[in-house]
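QA checklist item 7 of 12: single-chain prediction sanity check.
[x] sequence parsed
[x] length recorded as 274
[x] structure emitted
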Amino acid sequence: MERKYWVLIWMLGLFSYSAILAQEAFATDGGINQTDGDGLRQGVWERTYPNGHTMYKATFVDGKPVGEMLRFHPNGRQMARIVYDDEGQIGLGVLFDENGIKMAEGTFEGTHKTGEWQFYNPKGRLIAEEHYVNNLKDGQSVTYYSNGRVASISHWEKGKMHGLETTYYPGGGERLTANYKEGKLHGAYTIYFENGRKEIYGMYNEGRMDGSWFFFNALGHEDYRLNYKNGVAEEQGFLDKQQEERFREFERNRGRLKDPEDYTNDPDSYMMGQ
């Protein structure tokens, strides 16, 4: 996975759209930053950074953005561009890094991500495809290694992982298969060696390891097994630090695979905040 890219995404600020628009410190001469008698934004709205570069520029009709909405990095390069329809409901968006390289593209419905979204690394390679409903991940999510091979496939429902997740080694073989229920591990869980043989196999019940768990060596022979109840191994005396670390290390490494969703859940804030 492209870890540096995930760091870049994480560093993009999450800003308050409503707080900025509520401020009355904007200059109102020149016909910009105007509201009507009902307090609805009308016409062109702009704001600048302290260094004088434009922060954002958008046009509103009855409080809704229409046409092109632009957001910029402090260095003056474009951060995002969303083109809304005449009703201010559907917008096609593209997000850029500080060097002007495209990072993501997809559709907004009002202020919510909807439909298919694609995410890219700084070299322009596709690294993730996700589906959204009402700003929440819903459906299949796929991430890719820089070599173009699939890194993971997961399934989501209303913003929570639900169903089968499969991760892969860069060479293409399965690394993990796991089942989720409303965001919690639930059901069969299998870790594989790169040679395709099972390394660890067991079951989860509502997020806790449950029943017999089997641990194998790279030749496919069982090393040992442990019995879990409510997430605790009954053979704690046998489970020494080295054996426990074998499983915990995999979980730690797995947690480092960041999700494209980390970049923002709020396009309004992203577009128009400080």
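[x] summary fact logged: The longest helix spans residues 241-255.
[ ] second reviewer sign-off
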